[in-house]
Automatic annotation (TrEMBL), chain A:
This is Glycine--tRNA ligase alpha subunit. InterPro entries: aa-tRNA-synth_II/BPL/LPL (IPR045864), Gly-tRNA-synth_heterodimer (IPR006194), Gly-tRNA_ligase_asu (IPR002310). It is found in: Cytoplasm. One of its GO terms (biological process) is glycyl-tRNA aminoacylation.
From TrEMBL, chain B:
One of its GO terms (biological process) is arginyl-tRNA aminoacylation. Gene3D superfamilies: Isoleucyl-tRNA Synthetase, Domain 1 (1.10.730.10). HAMAP family: Gly_tRNA_synth_beta. GO terms for molecular function: arginine-tRNA ligase activity; ATP binding; glycine-tRNA ligase activity. PANTHER family: GLYCINE--TRNA LIGASE, CHLOROPLASTIC_MITOCHONDRIAL 2 (PTHR30075:SF2), GLYCYL-TRNA SYNTHETASE (PTHR30075). Pfam families: DALR_1 (PF05746), tRNA_synt_2f (PF02092). This is Glycine--tRNA ligase beta subunit. It comes from the Bacteria. It catalyses: tRNA(Gly) + glycine + ATP = glycyl-tRNA(Gly) + AMP + diphosphate. Belongs to the class-II aminoacyl-tRNA synthetase family. Keywords: Aminoacyl-tRNA synthetase, ATP-binding, Coiled coil, Cytoplasm, Ligase, Nucleotide-binding, Protein biosynthesis.
Length: 296, 695
């Protein structure tokens, strides 16, 4: 199955499960979890179902396009269901069948894996899902987001699209994957991988990046002071990405590291709190809507 | 009374393999305790478990609780009876409350006062009713290191609970937990099985077997072992079974089918442990060897299912392993490009513990401790040179990618890389050995370099942690301080290393940490706490040798600088316990020690001792001192004991003939001073007042 077809299959499947099919968010981030459609929406009591593809950037994983598996930017297919349905494992397994993976012919297992992103005050328990020994999905029940206890608990499903495609297309190298027809993954992303790696490890202006980190942080705070949650959150994402660039460059010393992470964490917590307060002020509109649906 | 079997199955989403064994033990125990506490009799309890279920089967459970007959004391007679001898309002009220008539009340005297008593009969409730009330207590009380919430419910458990089966005989007990209501429906294998109704407890194992779930843990383990053996026989292989891995696999699958795959011979160029660890840690595969123990390019995995599409499963696993091994080879090759001294420099970028600096700082402390020890042991310059090198590089592999990936290969990779970089063989070995012993049953370092480094490394961690307020509490010991202390004790208990004194080891570590300003807590306090911490480890060692607790206390209250000698002394005391005259000796030492406590600031003036008995004792003491010191130099615990025992006749003679607490202060103090000196000598052996004799 072509990568493009996989994405379409997953979108169709999760659309049928009642998910909003959202589009990737346009600020750099290290994981689909940090998209506000997940990070913020997982907070508070309002129900939420969403699925989207997220290009995720991890500067330290850049390999100049040399490595068959590691990438500066990879793609995640992200699903959030809040609250987590009781039969979520079965629903998830249905999505594998939609991708042509017959569970009777494969060895599918749920292997313990607890997920944590201390910088964003987020933690969850769950599994990595294995197909014949290959990890294809991260399956997590969020327990905490932005330092706040989740209630109700959301379930997050993150499919690593490249890895899954390597498995489905039986390829060894990510650049050989077929995106669609005769277009290979490498045709689309090779140059980008190379240039971003070179930029990250050799060219980036460290002084400027440090300055940007400070500036983004200040702007996030200013937006928070004005109770503007979403703009503030964008700047927090920018802080986080800037930190990742600096870290990959080796520009942050051991002792400084904790300090920078702490600054992002502090902002993320403030923002999470502000978001819940805002929604509460609005009377948790999605909660009301659901009640109306039920009553109507 | 009728009896029925009780079955409780807690159906979950996949429980992490490492927690299942303990959870099922707890469930069995909690059920047993709960039944007993609720006076419900049963004959025996059996448990089952897979990754998706925790089950307990109780046989021959009583239909209801046992009745209770209890005697309840009411008011005193003077209140319970009116002056004309009739029952008072108070007595009537008491009888009503206890559910008996006033005629059934009895009078009895307790400690000089007559009271009213009621004999109450509480009939037992039905077992099923009690279960409905008690189920929460049983299930929620299972302890897991980590629990979670799911959906909108507040309940915490290891993973979401999705079904419950609760049967009493053939009757469904409608218990509810986490909003799940029990039924007689269980669920089979996720893909091969279906849901199935369970008629009664004795049908459980078979009903699930039909749905491709082997619920019996031992049976599943045996199935896996049998399948491994079949593969061994068929291919003439040896499959070494790591006990921890087997246990994990047992709880990863509900219906095991072992299968094998292969990988390219090229990868066999990697160090053996790298291959084995990659297979075990990443993929839960068993390695395959020839009968002679040579690693082969195959692996065995246990699939959760039957042999449907088994070639596809094997092929998929081969592909994953290929990628994993390519990664490992990449790490290995990259690591070999990193000169050791550059790796050592990188240690300054790895934080050890926030308050204790980086790994680089730690290596410098270990280096300084190790060289001090080497010097003190009067090693020759060439050995010291090797020690210097080994200490400088002992942690370099922490900066390698392989150890970053597999922390359990720390030390092993260090030795492999050090050899590849042309380091001295002994130096390379010390890089590995200084981590030993890694666990309770593990071996101690064999080489002298590894031994000294192991001591320096461990004592720095222990004293450093105590110095910043990190101590193990209960089951929490994140820095493995207990294991490290036990390791030091294990090393020092070897006769050849008894020249290293524990007390001095602690002092050296304290000196260095103090010099670097890393003690957040007062030095004296740290020293005391660390000594007590080691005393506990030593106590455990002596307990294992069946040394009596009072002997242990006596030894632990004495001089602990020399651990080897301390344990030998205890062994000598165990032998002395067999001798009849030992009691007399202990009495002599104890009497001396008790009086010596009264000695304040006193000084012994030998020429002023005039009485023959006290002169004799002084002479015996002088002889004993000389003998004792000689014996200690030869580190002969029996001779040490005999030296002090030699004084005993004179001690008793002294107490029979000399009055210590006389009016004359000068005489009194001088006698006390003599007893104090004797006690100080005896105390170097043991604090004998702890020894207990059965009367």
């Amino acid at each position: 199955m072509e990568l493009q077809q996989m994405i379409i299959q997953l979108q169709n499947y999760w659309s049928k499960q009642g998910c909003i099919i959202a589009q990737p968010y346009d600020v750099e981030k290290g994981a689909g979890t940090l998209n506000p459609m997940t990070f913020l929406r997982a907070l508070g009591p309002e129900p939420w179902k969403v699925a989207y593809v997220e290009p995720s950037r991890r500067p330290a994983d850049g390999r100049y396009g040399d490595n068959p598996n590691r990438l500066y930017q990879h793609h995640q297919f992200q699903v959030i269901l809040k609250p987590a349905p009781d039969n979520i494992q079965d629903i998830y397994l249905g999505s594998l069948q939609a991708l042509g993976i017959d569970p009777l012919k494969h060895d599918i297992r749920f292997v313990e894996d607890n997920w944590e992103n201390p910088t964003f005050g987020a933690a969850g328990l769950g599994w990595e899902v294995w197909v014949d020994g290959m990890e294809i999905t991260q399956f997590t029940y969020f327990q905490q987001v932005g330092g706040l206890e989740t209630n109700p608990v959301s379930v997050e499903l993150t499919y690593g699209l490249e890895r899954l495609a390597l498995y489905i297309q039986d390829k060894e190298n990510v650049y050989d994957l077929t995106w669609i027809d005769d277009v290979k993954y490498g045709d689309i992303f090779f140059q980008q991988e190379y240039e971003h790696s070179k930029y990250t490890f050799e060219v980036s202006d460290v002084k400027l990046l440090f300055h940007l980190f400070d500036a983004y942080e200040k702007e996030a705070m200013r937006a928070l002071d004005e109770q503007l949650v979403f703009p503030a959150y964008d700047y927090i994402l920018k802080c986080s990405h800037t930190f990742n660039l600096l870290d990959a460059r080796g520009a942050i010393s051991v002792t400084e590291r904790t300090g920078y992470i702490g600054r992002v964490r502090h902002l993320a917590r403030q923002c999470a709190k502000a978001y819940v307060e805002q929604r509460e002020k609005l009377g948790f509109p999605l909660l009301k809507q659901r009640e109306e649906d039920h009553n109507g | 009374m009728d009896k029925r079997d009780l079955l409780l199955e807690i159906g979950c989403e996949e429980i992490p393999a490492r927690f299942v064994q303990d959870a099922i033990r707890q469930l069995g125990e909690r059920m047993a305790n709960w039944l007993t506490a609720h006076r419900i009799s049963y004959s025996d309890i059996q448990t089952f478990a897979t990754s998706r279920r925790l089950t307990v089967w109780v046989r021959q459970v009583a239909e209801s609780q046992e009745d209770v007959y209890e005697e309840v004391r009411g008011p005193a007679e003077r209140i319970a009876k009116t002056p004309d001898g009739k029952w008072s309002k108070a007595a009537e009220g008491f009888a009503r409350k206890q559910g008996v008539s006033v005629e059934q009340l009895e009078l009895r005297e307790v400690k000089g006062e007559v009271y009213v008593f009621a004999n109450r009969h509480v009939p037992g409730n039905r077992t099923t009713d009690e279960l409905i009330k008690g189920i929460h207590e049983i299930i929620a009380g299972i302890n897991f290191p980590k629990t979670m919430r799911w959906g909108s419910d507040k309940t915490r458990f290891i993973r979401p609970i999705r079904w419950l089966v609760c049967l009493f005989g053939e009757e469904i007990v409608p218990i509810t937990f986490a909003h799940v209501r029990a039924s007689n429906i269980s669920y089979g294998h996720r893909f091969l099985g279906n849901k199935t109704s369970i008629a009664s407890a004795d049908q459980y194992v078979d009903a699930l077997r039909q749905q491709y779930v082997i619920v019996d843990v031992d049976e599943r383990r045996q199935l896996i072992l049998d399948q491994l053996r079949q593969l061994e026989e068929k291919h003439n292989w040896k499959i070494p079974v790591d006990a921890g891995l087997l246990e994990e696999v047992v709880f990863l699958v509900e219906y095991p089918t072992a299968l094998y795959g292969s990988f390219s011979k090229e990868f066999l160029k990697l160090p053996k442990e790298v291959l084995i660890t990659t297979m075990r840690e990443h993929q839960r595969y068993f390695p395959v060897e020839t009968k002679d123990g040579e690693l082969l390019p195959y692996f065995v995995t246990v699939r959760n299912g039957d042999d449907h599409g088994i070639e596809t499963v094997a092929k998929g696993n081969e592909k994953v392993l290929r990628a994993r091994l390519s990664d490992a080879r990449f790490f290995y090759e990259e690591d070999l490009k990193l000169p050791i001294d550059q790796a050592v420099e990188k240690l300054d970028r790895i934080v050890f513990q926030e308050d204790l600096g980086t790994m680089g700082d730690r290596v410098r402390r270990i280096h300084s401790l190790a060289l001090q020890l080497g010097n003190q042991l009067q090693w020759d310059p060439s050995r010291l040179e090797k020690l210097d090198r080994a200490a400088s590089i002992c942690k370099f592999d922490l900066a390698t990618q392989m150890v970053g990936e597999f922390s359990e290969l720390e030390g092993y990779m260090g030795q492999v890389y050090a050899l590849r970089h042309g380091e001295d063989k002994e130096v390379a070995e010390a890089v590995y050995e200084h981590h030993l012993p890694r666990s309770a049953g593990d071996r101690v370092p064999q080489g002298s370099l590894g031994t000294i480094l192991a001591l320096a490394d461990k004592i720095d961690t222990i004293v450093g942690s105590f110095g910043v307020g990190i101590q193990p509490t209960g089951s929490q010991d994140p820095y493995g301080l207990r294991r490290r202390a036990a390791g030091i004790v294990q090393i020092l208990l070897q006769e050849k290393w008894s020249a290293v004194s524990l007390t001095q080891l602690i002092q050296l570590a304290l000196d260095r940490l103090e010099k670097e300003g890393l003690l957040k807590i007062e030095r004296e306090k740290v020293e005391k706490e660390v000594s007590q911490f080691f005393a506990l480890r030593l106590k455990a060692v002596m307990q294992e040798q069946d040394i009596r607790y009072d002997v242990i206390d006596a030894i632990l209250s004495a001089d602990l600088a020399d651990l080897y000698l301390a344990v030998s002394k205890a062994q000598v005391l165990m032998e002395q316990l067999e001798r009849e005259s030992f009691k007399l000796e202990v009495e002599g030492f104890t009497r001396t020690a008790n009086l010596a406590k009264k000695a304040k600031e006193v000084h012994l003036h030998r020429q002023e001792l005039q009485e023959p008995a006290e002169r004799d004792l002084l002479q015996a003491y002088d002889e004993a001192s000389e003998q004792f010191n000689k014996a200690r130099e030869q580190r002969d615990p029996l001779m040490m004991y005999q030296a002090i025992a030699h004084m005993v006749p004179q001690i008793h003679h002294f107490f029979d003939h000399v009055m210590v607490m006389v009016e004359d202060e000068r005489v009194r103090n001088n006698r006390l001073a003599l007893l104090k000196e004797i006690t100080e000598l005896v105390r170097q052996y043991a604090a004998f007042e702890h020894i207990v004799f059965a009367s």
